[in-house]
Amino acid sequence: MSHGATGQSISQRSPHPPRSSQSAGQAKNSALRGWLAVAGLALGVFSFVTTETLPIGLLPSIADGTSVSVGAAGFLVTGFAMVAAATAAPLTMLTGRMDRKWLLATLMVLYIAGNLLATVASTYPLLLAARIIVALAHGVFWSIAVSIAVRLVPERHAVRATSVVLGGISLASVVGTPLGTAIGQSTSWHVAFACVGLLGVPVLAAVLLFMPALPAKGSGNLRTLLHVLRHRTLLAAIGVTALVMSGHFLAFTYVTPYLEEVTGVRSSLIGVLLLAFGVAGVVGNFAAGAVVARALRGSLIGSSGLLAVVLAVMWAGGASTPLAVTMVMCWGVLYAALPVALQTWVLQAVPEESEAASSWYVAAFNGAIGVGSLIGGLITNASGQRPTMLAAAVFAAGATALVVACGRDGVQRRD
């Protein structure tokens, strides 16, 4: 029998691919859809971080457009963080029984609606209301995004999925906020909010097209919030987050006047330095993804400890431009590595209630933005720019000491 006849005979007997081939194809397709959904979550993080920080570069024009002071306009940022911090945990639990796919879709609809409302706002109360809508969605999104991402990929890729999703933070610093500021300055802040709002459309599409139905994981009630706090490991993770992020924002909120007044960097070069900080952050984020899975405790100690050193060097030698620029780059790498390590620690602490645990992490993180910025402002007003770096170094060193005190078992596994 010829080869052609043999092929025809086999074709006639087996009109469909073997079941194993079909299964492999389905698995490959499922894996691809899972990673596309993870990419959608990363874009969601990018969108939320961009819209959270967008008003910073547009405060004067927003203040003029809404007839308020620059300080009142600044509350659009600090108030946003406060609302997200206060509502992340309770709202995550109140929506605890909702399928995660449809909860994410709802959050993105709120995100889009809030930002589009900002584009037509002509008064401060209306703009503040628009920001509150987005802040409410922000807290819940952050509480569930990473725990959802690790459910979409094989367990061995959990840390990689975490680093991909949290990579949106660094990318927002490099691309989102600077580009949004440039659009707002060249056109109007209304247009900037419109552009940021439209970022939610592809995220919503990714959720609807690529994400499978994901039943809620955990008990999904308010009592769970208190129950998870019984785990000392989670309490330690929340404490480390609060300390190290308060230290970061204590210093970084005022890094521009520090670089201008202490280091002597020209105003025109500050944007370039902050861009370099963001680029270094992208490197740090994905480097952390490769290290955290193998050495979580070492990553936490190394990142927070070296951050304390960097901030102390900024305090002691910040008048030297080459040294200060080098330290800013190192700062970017270390800061971006921390959320990957901290979020992984939180997920490991209470795996059966990962969203409740993450909501406390989100509350601590966003609360640290407000607390750190407030302390930094008080120090700046009382003593100038330089002491903020020393105070921030003390916070980071305290976080490092707490990780060390937890011991290996306290970091690597739950109580």
UniProtKB/TrEMBL annotation:
<feature type="region of interest" description="Disordered">
    <location>
        <begin position="1"/>
        <end position="25"/>
    </location>
</feature>
<feature type="compositionally biased region" description="Low complexity">
    <location>
        <begin position="8"/>
        <end position="23"/>
    </location>
</feature>
<keyword id="KW-1133">Transmembrane helix</keyword>
<feature type="transmembrane region" description="Helical">
    <location>
        <begin position="323"/>
        <end position="347"/>
    </location>
</feature>
<feature type="transmembrane region" description="Helical">
    <location>
        <begin position="300"/>
        <end position="317"/>
    </location>
</feature>
<dbReference type="InterPro" id="IPR036259">
    <property type="entry name" value="MFS_trans_sf"/>
</dbReference>
<dbReference type="InterPro" id="IPR011701">
    <property type="entry name" value="MFS"/>
</dbReference>
<keyword id="KW-1003">Cell membrane</keyword>
<feature type="domain" description="Major facilitator superfamily (MFS) profile">
    <location>
        <begin position="37"/>
        <end position="410"/>
    </location>
</feature>
<keyword id="KW-0812">Transmembrane</keyword>
<feature type="transmembrane region" description="Helical">
    <location>
        <begin position="31"/>
        <end position="50"/>
    </location>
</feature>
<feature type="transmembrane region" description="Helical">
    <location>
        <begin position="128"/>
        <end position="152"/>
    </location>
</feature>
<feature type="transmembrane region" description="Helical">
    <location>
        <begin position="164"/>
        <end position="183"/>
    </location>
</feature>
<feature type="transmembrane region" description="Helical">
    <location>
        <begin position="234"/>
        <end position="256"/>
    </location>
</feature>
<feature type="transmembrane region" description="Helical">
    <location>
        <begin position="388"/>
        <end position="407"/>
    </location>
</feature>
<feature type="transmembrane region" description="Helical">
    <location>
        <begin position="268"/>
        <end position="293"/>
    </location>
</feature>
<dbReference type="Pfam" id="PF07690">
    <property type="entry name" value="MFS_1"/>
</dbReference>
<feature type="transmembrane region" description="Helical">
    <location>
        <begin position="189"/>
        <end position="214"/>
    </location>
</feature>
<protein>
    <submittedName>
        <fullName>MFS transporter</fullName>
    </submittedName>
</protein>
<feature type="transmembrane region" description="Helical">
    <location>
        <begin position="359"/>
        <end position="382"/>
    </location>
</feature>
<dbReference type="InterPro" id="IPR020846">
    <property type="entry name" value="MFS_dom"/>
</dbReference>
<feature type="transmembrane region" description="Helical">
    <location>
        <begin position="70"/>
        <end position="91"/>
    </location>
</feature>
<feature type="transmembrane region" description="Helical">
    <location>
        <begin position="103"/>
        <end position="122"/>
    </location>
</feature>
<keyword id="KW-0472">Membrane</keyword>
<dbReference type="InterPro" id="IPR050189">
    <property type="entry name" value="MFS_Efflux_Transporters"/>
</dbReference>
